[in-house]
Design a protein that fits this description.
The complex is a heterodimer of chains A (297) and B (380). Chain A is α/β, with parallel strands linked by helices and 297 residues long. Chain A has a single domain (11-296), classed as Thiamin diphosphate (ThDP)-binding fold, Pyr/PP domains (Rossmann fold, 3-Layer(aba) Sandwich), CATH 3.40.50. Chain A has helices at 24-36, 48-52, 73-86, 101-105, 108-116, 164-170, 184-196, 210-213, 220-229, 257-262, 272-296, and strands spanning 40-45, 64-68, 93-99, 122-127, 175-180, 201-206, 235-239, 243-248. In chain A, helix 3 (73-86) crosses helix 5. The longest helix of chain A is centred in the last third of the chain and has 25 residues, at 272-296. The relative contact order of chain A is 0.13. Chain B has 380 residues and is of the alpha/beta class. Chain B is 40% helix and 19% strand. Chain B has helices spanning 8-19, 33-44, 58-69, 81-86, 88-96, 121-124, 139-156, 181-187, 211-226, 228-243, 267-275, 295-304, 324-333, 355-362, 376-379; strands at residues 3-7, 23-26, 51-54, 75-79, 102-107, 132-135, 160-165, 173-177, 203-205, 250-253, 260-264, 282-287, 289-291, 309-314, 341-346, 374-375. In chain B, strand 15 (341-346), helix 14 and strand 16 (374-375) form a beta-alpha-beta unit. The longest helix of chain B has 18 residues, at 139-156. The termini of chain B are far apart. The mean pLDDT of chain B is 97. Classes of the chains: A alpha/beta (297), B alpha/beta (380). At the A-B interface, strand 1, strand 2, helix 3 and helix 5 of A face strand 3, helix 3, helix 5 and strand 9 of B.
């Protein structure tokens, strides 16, 4: 997409928001509000976006935002959607916006409940792979080998990242997809597809975090692209929990995972053995994914 | 007007159906289950008039109500004991967010160990969450209070908890006067309070604020809640004109010359009321509204009747301090010139209040102080 092709009228993120320079989550929400707006209501749980949205009476978005406590996002989304229907506003798209903590960890129960009930809204997880708002503490979305504030050197995140997409697929929801900020057209297409489907939809967005990941603000897109091209974060969609489809198939043989890890200071202390462990894990996940994609074909 | 035989739980559910509900979020817990089951039966017959959502926890139930109420919808949930404790975070959030949700709590002891008896510690441990709390003494009060609670909550934009004892009220069948939908509609129309989520209109609702702003919000909420007794009186006037029944914040029976009164909330107040004719020259103050605490009204009633001693029936205990109703009363009496003595009768664990206990506490033994705390087991 060329910059002159952007429809400025459809922008819903105001300038002057509180995100750090190069914030992947700010970009993600800019793209998603543009794709899903203008008749949009956002339920926002505790996360970086609680700060990015600004302090009332200021606001960073052109649509209503309702803040909610950390574990409650999935349930508050149900109430807002059903309330709007009861009040004669069934056409408003409801988006629940949560970070990885509010999705993978403390919000998982409410997310699972809402997904199982097939609530009619879109749950968007912007995943920066740790509790970044509180200062980079480990979450269950933190990848193996990363250094965090609760796993400081010489410690590192010991377990593997939780596979949230398989969990969501197991709920047999109508639509689930991964996306990241380096591929805005792919993200937009998925969001627009999701908007047309009714029932529970889940979008998992990888959102690079320059201060948390130890990258330069200017490198966010580059990092996001490397995550996809090394196979660390594949781009795909799942229909009804069974139909898996790649939306972008990188040639992984060209770029080793080491390149992605080496660009981030959070992985600085990883030795070759640990890099190999993570590379094996990524390879394994990739094979499993390909199996699902091929079965779906 | 039609008298029907129903339990306290059914009375609560029928009141919710009559009031015209947009959303019920439900999760089962003993002894509250009959409430959500009755509402589910309305749903099954297509008579609920709103959405019925079976959620995965009590926390989710109240969170779902919060979301609905933020769109201007009328929402209801009911819980008990551990369920209420599990909701604690979102209970605070709802009052800060000023959403007029009505929730029923059926009193039950919180473990460990597991227990089913109606200790009031579950609702009383939510004392400081910014919700109004009204304690009901029988099924008729439950039915009427649920209706009145919606009117009160939506007028003040504050959530309201309607509380009654597990089993003694929730599972006991009584003949009650059940208002039909049309009658209830004359008392309370569809919800008219302002939505917080307004599609098409930007708003950063309940986002981060400063301590100074929070102070203003807390003060506003406090001062708004202090208006509840006056607003309740107006609502009750309208209610009694239509239904022919009337309620007070505190209800009392104090015979002329009675120097000792019991203070009780919920079903224990019914026990005392029944026992009064058999107890020599003793009165009763039934505490209905606990938040806001009717300190001024209590002082006035006690002063006007020259009461010398109040025996508080506390089916609860704040460990390290004592019965909670007694604490609150003592605090209210501090500003009185000649305050009555306060004696606490602690029935924590949900112990049943018997006539023998009432008799025994009125006649202290030769070595006992007139104000010594009395535990239920000692009184048997």
């Amino acid at each position: 997409m060329k910059i002159e092709e952007l429809n400025r009228e459809s922008e819903m993120l105001y300038s002057g928001h509180n995100a750090c320079p190069g914030c992947g989550a700010a970009l993600a929400v800019r793209y998603l509000t543009r794709a899903l707006g203008p008749d949009l209501a956002i339920v926002l749980t505790a996360s970086c976006w609680s700060i990015i949205s600004g302090m009332p009476p200021l606001t960073a978005l052109k649509c209503p935002i309702l803040h909610c406590p950390f574990p409650s996002a999935g349930s508050v989304g149900s109430g807002v959607k059903r309330g709007l229907v009861a009040k004669g506003k069934p056409d408003t798209t409801v988006v629940v916006l949560a970070g990885d903590g509010g999705t993978f960890d403390i919000g998982l129960q409410a997310l699972s409940g809402a997904a199982q009930r097939n609530e009619d809204y879109i749950f968007v997880c912007y995943d920066n792979e740790a509790y970044m708002n509180t200062g980079m503490q480990t979450s269950s979305a933190t990848p193996f080998g990363a250094r965090t504030a609760t796993a400081p050197y010489p410690l590192f995140k010991a377990g593997q990242k939780k596979d949230i997409m398989q969990i969501m697929a197991a709920h047999s929801i109508p639509y689930a997809a991964t996306a990241t900020v380096a591929f805005p057209e792919d993200m937009e297409e998925k969001l627009k597809k999701a908007k047309k489907i009714s029932g529970f939809r889940f979008i998992h967005i990888l959102s690079p975090c320059p201060p948390g990941w130890g990258t330069e603000s200017a490198d966010t897109i580059q990092i996001s692209r490397l995550a996809v091209n090394t196979g660390f974060f594949p781009l795909y969609e799942i229909r009804d929990g069974v139909s898996w489809e790649m939306t972008l198939k990188p040639d992984r043989s060209r770029i080793p995972l080491k390149e992605y890890l080496g660009a981030q200071r959070r992985f600085k202390q990883m030795d070759d053995r640990r890099i190999e462990i993570l590379q094996e894990e990524v390879d394994h996940d990739w094979e499993c994914l390909m199996e699902k994609v091929n079965t779906a074909d | 007007m039609a008298f029907e035989l129903m339990s306290g739980s059914q009375a609560a559910a029928v009141a919710v159906q009559r009031v015209g509900i947009d959303l019920v979020a439900a999760y089962p817990i003993t002894p509250q289950t009959a409430i959500v089951e009755t509402l589910a039966n309305f749903e099954a017959k297509g008579e609920l008039g709103g959405e019925f959502v079976s959620v995965e926890s009590e926390y989710a139930a109240l969170a779902c109500c919060y979301g609905a109420a933020a769109t201007g919808a009328r929402a209801f949930t009911a819980t008990s004991s551990h369920g209420l404790a599990y909701m604690h975070e979102i209970i605070h959030w709802c009052s800060g967010a000023r959403v007029p949700i009505v929730m029923v709590n059926v009193n039950r002891t919180i473990g460990a160990p597991w227990s089913l008896d109606p200790d009031q510690g579950d609702s009383l441990s939510q004392r400081d969450t910014g919700w109004m709390q009204i304690y009901c003494a029988n099924a008729q009060e439950v039915f009427d209070t649920v209706l009145q609670a919606y009117a009160l909550a939506e007028e003040l934009l504050l959530p309201c908890m309607v509380v009654f004892d597990g089993f003694y009220i929730s599972h006991t069948y009584e003949a009650i006067d059940v208002a039909e939908k049309e009658e209830v509609r004359r008392f309370i129309g569809p919800p008219g309070f302002e939505a917080q989520v307004k599609p098409g209109s930007p708003g950063n609702t309940h986002a981060l604020t400063t301590g100074e702003n929070q102070l203003l919000l807390v003060r506003n909420r406090h001062e708004t809640m202090l208006r509840a007794p006056a607003v309740f009186e107006e609502i009750n006037k309208r209610f009694s004109d239509i239904m022919g029944r009337s309620y007070k914040i505190i209800d009392y029976v104090i015979p002329p010359g009675a120097k000792t009164v019991f203070l009780a909330a919920g079903s224990t107040s019914e026990t005392v009321r029944w026992a009064l004719p058999k107890l020599n020259n003793t009165g009763l103050i039934q505490l209905r509204m606990f938040r806001p605490f009717p300190a001024g009204q209590l002082r006035s009633v006690l002063a006007a009747h020259d009461v010398e001693k109040v025996i508080v029936v506390d089916r609860n205990c704040s460990t390290g301090m004592g019965g909670i109703f007694a604490q609150e009363l003592r605090s209210a009496l501090y500003e009185m010139e000649n305050p009555p003595q306060v004696q606490d009768m602690i029935l924590a664990g949900g112990v049943d209040l018997t006539f023998e206990m009432l008799e025994k506490i009125l006649i202290p033994g030769p070595d006992e102080s007139r104000t010594e705390d009395k535990w239920g087991v000692d009184l048997k």
